[in-house]
Design brief:
- 11% of the residues lie in helices and 46% in strands.
- It is mostly beta strands.
- It folds into two domains: 144 residues, Cathepsin D, subunit A, domain 1; 148 residues, Cathepsin D, subunit A, domain 1 (Beta Barrel).
- Strands 1, 3, 4, 5, 6, 7, 10, 11, 12, 13 and 14 form an eleven-stranded mixed β-sheet that branches.
- The longest helix is centred in the first third of the chain and has 7 residues.
- The chain is globular, with a radius of gyration of 19 Å.
- The N terminus is likely disordered.
């Protein structure tokens, strides 16, 4: 069994020869990309979350199957609506896409139904170019020497070394271009800081509905509306589902799923970009290099 730490070192060594995996089907459930995984010999799913800096294991999965792992240090994890101290585990045995390895520094959180075993963040995305075909629900991995992402890229993107997250530049309603965290774990469209929406008076101009949204640590009140148009790369999208935290609702929209204390001030990040935008495209993402290409099939 190959041993991998948080960064998935040595992950999928056959790729060094082939350059690209075959297309693999994924499930799309409530906007979440879920790929088959086996943890401790039990079949289930891993959710892919490009906005998370950590890898996590579902507390419901552990409880359902009576699992125990070697305990690591406790860390503070910052979510959208709250910060909590969480347990971590080492030597978690995993089989993913045919490769056996073990994960260290895996954070215990609640990820819904017990069949959702893992949430994979930066450690998954960091080592390869990841191609997600949302319309066909397929994924493949590509080594960086097999594709020139700098030449191919058509979306303004950076890997923000301060927040340690991928951020993309999006023009909102033909009024302002902002940096948003590229967050495949966000099942909505855009989630913006309330101050951004208030600055342009969008909460008065557009029909607003209130609701509850769930973060990794807690739930919070948000308000939802449709932004008439956004532009990402060469594409314009209309009537984009957009949410903001409710009035007086505190929210962190720049480093959810991160270990507290690891951030230095970087780009001015105004929110998150998620599934309701990405669902239209084949997305090719070079997380580490800070390059992104999208195409509508």
């Amino acid at each position: 069994m190959r041993c991998l730490c948080l960064g998935f070192l040595c992950f999928f060594s056959p790729l060094s020869f082939s350059g690209v995996t075959q297309w693999i089907d994924f499930k799309l459930v409530d906007g979440h990309v879920k790929i088959p995984v086996v943890v401790s010999g039990i079949d289930g799913y891993a959710i892919l979350d490009s906005g998370a800096q950590i890898n996590s294991i579902n507390s419901a999965f552990m409880q359902k199957n009576g699992l125990e792992f070697s305990t690591g240090t406790k860390i503070k994890v910052q979510g959208v609506y709250d910060t909590k101290t969480r347990k971590t585990y080492n030597n978690v045995p995993v089989n993913l896409l045919g490769a056996d390895f073990s994960l260290d520094n895996v954070v215990e959180i609640f990820i819904g139904h017990h069949s959702n075993q893992l949430l994979l963040g930066a450690g998954f995305f960091n080592n390869f170019v990841v191609q997600l075909d949302y319309p066909k629900k397929k994924i493949r991995l590509i080594t960086r020497d097999a594709i020139d992402m700098q030449k191919l890229a058509n979306v303004k993107m950076k890997f923000d070394k301060y927040s340690r997250q991928p951020i993309v530049n999006v023009r909102l309603n033909n009024e302002k271009s902002v940096w948003l965290v590229l967050d495949t774990g966000n099942s909505g469209g855009l989630m913006l800081k309330r101050s951004t929406a208030e600055h342009f008076d969008w909460l008065s101009k557009f029909e607003i509905k209130s609701g509850i949204s769930n973060g990794i640590n807690a739930a919070g009140i948000h308000q939802v509306f449709r932004l008439p148009v956004i532009k990402i790369g060469p594409y314009e999208l209309e009537n984009v589902l957009t949410s903001v935290p409710g009035k007086n609702q505190s929210a962190n929209l720049s480093s959810q799923g991160s270990q507290l204390g690891s951030r230095i001030k970087g780009k001015s990040i105004k929110g998150l970009l998620g599934y309701d935008v990405l669902k239209h495209f084949i997305v090719t993402l070079d997380y580490k290099g800070g390059h992104m290409h999208i195409v509508a099939p």
